[in-house]
Amino acid sequence: xxxxxxxxxxxxxxxxxxxxxxxxxxxxxxxxxxxxxxxxxxxxxxxxxxxxxxxxxxxxxxxxxxxxxxxxxxxxxxxxxxxxxxxxxxxxxxxxxxxxxxxxxxxxxxxxxxxxxxxxxxxxxxxxxxxxxxxxxxxxxxxxxxxxxxxxxxxxxxxxxxxxxxxxxxxxxxxxxxxxxx
Length: 182
What we know:
alpha/beta
């Protein structure tokens, strides 16, 4: 099975598992036998937009509670840490009406994340994702709502990509004694 096909199959399995979780079924992914806890560090913010770090950390924490079967601890006490950077924040003008009045706007955020063990060795990643969400210019709180949608989608996407990367790495790693079993 090719690497791309394997990653797609695992991503599909994780998405289906997330769908089943919405009806009460729990299928959370572990991070491996050596990882019983996860810490989510506050991401660095390299963008020009201040104060995105805490809302992103809150979304990452929510996503981890739904998707990952480990205890969440402070990063310094955890077996593994999720670390990253907010790389870019952009707003965009969008659709204009026939009178050249702005009807729609949007926001785009790009982030990068890596999963490391307690000693700082990389377990999965780095992965980089970008997400965009639009809103009508008449919408009260439209920008804030769009930012929340983007940060929530990025949090879930980062975790899914890191889980796929972690699982692909495990599939490539030979199991000790497995060669002798045949």
